[in-house]
Design brief:
Blueprint: E1 4-9, H1 18-26, E2 38-44, E3 51-57, E4 75-77, E5 84-86, H2 95-102, E6 109-110, E7 119-120, H3 126-130, H4 136-140, E8 146-150, H5 151-158, E9 177-180, H6 193-201, H7 237-243
Parallel strand pairs: 1-9
Antiparallel strand pairs: 1-8, 2-3, 4-5, 6-7
């Protein structure tokens, strides 16, 4: 078996979600929580050194998929491309809940919270591959942040990094993916930070200051920033949509 996989360059991604919408269009998925590809967005740092992070998250079609055994045959590790595929005839199988719980990347989506809800996941576009085409998500990326092919070839070209900061360790499942992390945020134009903060405090005329102390620019709790970290595994369809929102329509 030749294991195929994805490459994602976070430094090129602008979170346009064309990949997610292309997947939804190709598989004619309705608006809502059924998704083959997802994009996650979260923020780190304090002003003025905040940074947005993006993660392209289809199924990573692991070389040792922990989701397959508990699926009781509803999922298989396909031999030609190494894809982990869901049997459409068993999309409502309750065993897929156990499979989803076993996936560290939350790759299986459901259309409701019912135990027999319809499930869907990335298929690696094996139908498109059979016709000599790239996966729809890869073809759609305007920034060329995605690539796809035999995993060995991707690793020779891009390296072997299979984990971005905040992601689960790849040591157990062996995800078929290579990542290039975003560049650390740097100050391209030198400026006086303290003076800039003072200017941002003030508003013209009799309007009160926007804030009165630079200390208020630093979050005091994790909940103060809506998406302060990456969370790939969720507990409900509502949370799933909230974590991967902006591509529902």
């Amino acid at each position: 078996m030749t294991q195929y996989g994805f490459f994602f360059d976070e430094s090129r991604c602008m979170d346009c979600r064309a990949c997610v919408l292309a997947c939804r269009d190709w598989y004619d998925l309705p608006a809502g929580s059924l998704k083959g590809a997802r994009m996650f967005q979260w923020e780190t740092g304090n002003f003025p050194y905040t940074q947005m992070h993006f993660l392209f998250a289809p199924c990573y079609h692991c070389q040792n998929p922990t989701c397959v055994p508990p699926a009781n045959g509803a999922l298989i590790k396909e031999p030609k491309y190494g894809a982990v595929l869901l049997d459409p005839a068993r999309a409502n199988d309750p065993a897929l809940r156990a499979a989803a719980a076993a996936c560290p990347y939350g790759a299986i989506s459901f259309d409701s919270d019912s135990p027999t809800a319809k499930a869907f996941k990335c298929t690696m576009c094996v139908d498109r591959q059979a016709a000599g085409n790239m996966p729809s998500c890869v073809n759609s990326c305007p920034q060329r942040a995605l690539d796809f092919g035999p995993l060995d070839d991707l690793q020779k070209k891009y390296g072997t990094n299979a984990q971005l900061e905040g992601m689960p360790s790849p040591s157990t499942t062996g995800p078929a993916v290579v990542f290039k992390p975003a560049f650390a945020k740097t100050k391209l134009v030198p400026y006086d930070e303290a003076k800039a903060i003072q200017l941002l405090m003030k508003r013209p005329g009799s309007l009160p200051a926007v804030f009165t102390s630079a200390d208020t620019l630093k979050p005091t709790s994790a909940t103060q920033v809506g998406r302060s970290g990456l969370k790939m595994v969720v507990t409900s369809t509502k949370e799933f949509i909230a974590r991967t929102q902006t591509d529902e329509h």
